TrEMBL record:
InterPro entries in alphabetical order: GH (IPR017853), Rv2525c-like_Glyco_Hydro-like (IPR015020)
UniProt-recorded name of the protein: Rv2525c-like glycoside hydrolase-like domain-containing protein
Sequence ranges assigned to domain Rv2525c-like glycoside hydrolase-like in this UniProt record: 72-169
Family matches, as Gene3D superfamilies: Glycosidases (3.20.20.80)
Keywords: Signal
Domain of life: Bacteria
Residues annotated as signal peptide: 1-31
Length: 278
């Protein structure tokens, strides 16, 4: 760019100001926006949806029973949530390692993929929606876990849907002087797979604060979604932001009475519908 003259009359000053304005415009126009969402195992109830929608653009949506539950309270609720204006984070609860060691992990992954696809279609999700496999155990994945995940991803994609993984982004010990996060490990084994990364450690997490942040601030730069607060809070990670949680340790949805139905996890993403579930 040519240098502006050092002598500035009125015309030169006007040109300089215009140049400065236009120079800043593209950055503002292309600034990525982030959207706040929530997830929880229990369905919050139809009556709570209008209030939740004031703060949240999307919600988690289980296709099978959530961890620790024998039934799925989200079944049949997609149309109600969609009508209320919510986008979706579609979840399928994956297997724990002790289950995988008792059978052929790859076969089990293929069967669970078929279940996930059937459930997504039964709920009326679009043909190319993104389903996240919920992997609750963290650290470096074991061979049977990788076999299960790989078969699940392949099985979902073979039916035309997109497949991602929910996993931890927190670094844990991985041998003398080394650390690993589940997100980094999975990104190496399954490149280009969308990741919903959980990292509630403060920092980088702000705690139970209903504020949309760039997912890249999660500590895993390519995260599609960042879960930055959980209910109940994990004390070993959240001591620096404990004051943002309720006294009982939960993160409650704003403007709603505290109960099991309003204790939520907080998420942020660059999309108001990260799974393309609308």
């Amino acid at each position: 760019m040519p240098r502006l003259p050092t002598r500035r009359g009125k015309g030169t000053l006007a040109i300089a100001l215009l140049l400065a304005l236009f120079a800043g415009a593209p950055a503002q126009a292309h600034a990525a926006k982030s959207y706040l969402g929530f997830d929880q195992n229990l369905y919050p109830g139809d009556a709570a949806l209008p209030i939740l929608r004031h703060d949240f653009s999307y919600t988690g949506y289980w296709l099978n029973p959530p961890p620790g539950m024998k039934s799925n309270p989200w079944t049949g609720k997609r149309a109600t949530l969609r009508q209320a204006g919510f986008g979706f984070l579609i979840l399928f609860n994956g297997r724990l390692d002790h289950e995988l060691r008792q059978s052929d992990a790859a076969t089990l992954g293929a069967k669970d993929a078929a279940k996930a696809v059937r459930a997504a279609r039964h709920e009326g999700f679009p043909p190319h929606a993104l389903i996240f496999l919920d992997m609750e155990e963290g650290g470096r994945m074991l061979p049977e876990q990788l076999a299960y995940i790989g078969a699940w991803l392949q099985g979902v994609r073979a039916q035309g849907l997109r497949a991602g993984i929910y996993c931890s982004g927190i670094e844990v010990p991985d041998g003398p002087g080394k650390t690993i996060s589940t997100a980094r490990d999975l990104a190496e084994h399954f490149p280009a797979t969308p990741l919903w990364v959980a990292n509630d450690a403060c920092p980088p997490a702000p705690g139970c604060v209903a504020r949309a942040l760039p997912p890249s601030q999660s500590g895993f730069a390519s995260a599609l979604v960042w879960q930055f607060a959980q209910s109940p809070r994990r004390r070993q990670f959240t001591s620096a932001c404990a004051q943002t949680y309720a006294r009982d340790g939960n993160c409650y949805a704003p403007q709603l009475p505290h109960s099991l139905l309003t204790a939520i996890d907080l998420n942020t993403s660059a999309s108001p519908d990260p799974s393309g579930g609308r």
